[in-house]
Structure formats: C-alpha cells, structure tokens
Write a sequence for this structure.
C-alpha cells in the first residue's frame, strides 16, 4: 500500500540521517514478510512516494547495512524489497517468488535485474517466467538468502545486523 511504501521511505531516510543507527532491519507483521502489491492499486494515479522501484533503490543505496527478515512469504514486490536489502535471512518455512507472471505481469521494481545478479541468469529466468514459489532451503542453495533459521527470524536478523 502507499502507506507502507511511505513508511519504508520515511524510516530509511530517518535511519540514514541518524548517526546512532548502525544498521536497519526490515520485517513484516504477523509472520509474513510481504505478499507483494495490491494489484488494484496499479490503476490508480501515481503520486509522490507511490512507486516501489524508487523505494527498493533507496534500500539498496543505503550506506548502512539493511537486513531483510523474511517470514512466511516474500512474493512479488515483497521479494523485490528483500532483493534491495544487503542481507536476507529467512525462516526455514518461508517461501519466495515472483508470481505476477501468472497474471500477465512482469516484476516492476527492478526484480528482473536484481535477481539474476544475485542467483544467476538461469535460476532467475526460471523464477521470473514460471512464477513458482521456492522454499527457503532452495533459496539458500541459490544464494537468494544468506541464512535460514528455525528460530525467531527477527532476532536472527538483528544479530546479523549487529555483526555487520
């Protein structure tokens, strides 16, 4: 939603400007990272702060380490947010994917560029063109996530953020 995008933008800018903040952790709520954008919002007029791509670029360009704590699902725009992060930790039961192709859309927040750089062209093309969801264990093997945990994902992401 626009409110989530604005909160991400505001939070990142505030964290980058605050010298006491050493790292940033992005997580979802209620055991889910993000199932992506609400496609009903695609037809509404774009307003300032309403596009996901610039927010993901802002995450990626942060001078402070940004860690994604992925629980549940990171799909579509949610995975693209995670791809913008410098590090990704996933719960062992998490699933990731870019399912928008199944309704005739391509990832629109530069996921088609970030994913191949991270996991290689063949694996990325498979994910982008099929829309399949991959489990965290496969994401780790591909290099999509840096670590998987069975414990509290947020605590593990905070530990990683403190370490880096």
């Amino acid at each position: 939603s626009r409110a989530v995008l604005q909160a991400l933008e505001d939070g990142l800018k505030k964290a980058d400007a605050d010298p006491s903040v050493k790292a940033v952790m992005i997580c979802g709520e209620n055991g889910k990272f993000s199932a992506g954008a609400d496609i009903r919002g695609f037809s509404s007029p774009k307003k300032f702060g309403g596009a996901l791509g610039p927010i993901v670029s802002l995450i990626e360009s942060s001078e402070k380490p940004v860690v994604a704590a992925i629980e549940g699902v990171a799909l579509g725009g949610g995975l693209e947010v995670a791809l913008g992060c410098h590090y990704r930790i996933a719960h062992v039961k998490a699933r990731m994917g870019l399912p928008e192709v199944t309704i005739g859309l391509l990832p629109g927040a530069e996921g088609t560029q970030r994913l191949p750089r991270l996991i290689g062209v063949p694996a990325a093309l498979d994910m982008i063109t099929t829309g399949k969801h991959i489990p965290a264990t496969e994401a780790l093997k591909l290099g999509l996530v840096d670590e998987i945990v069975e414990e509290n994902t947020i605590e593990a992401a905070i530990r990683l953020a403190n370490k880096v």
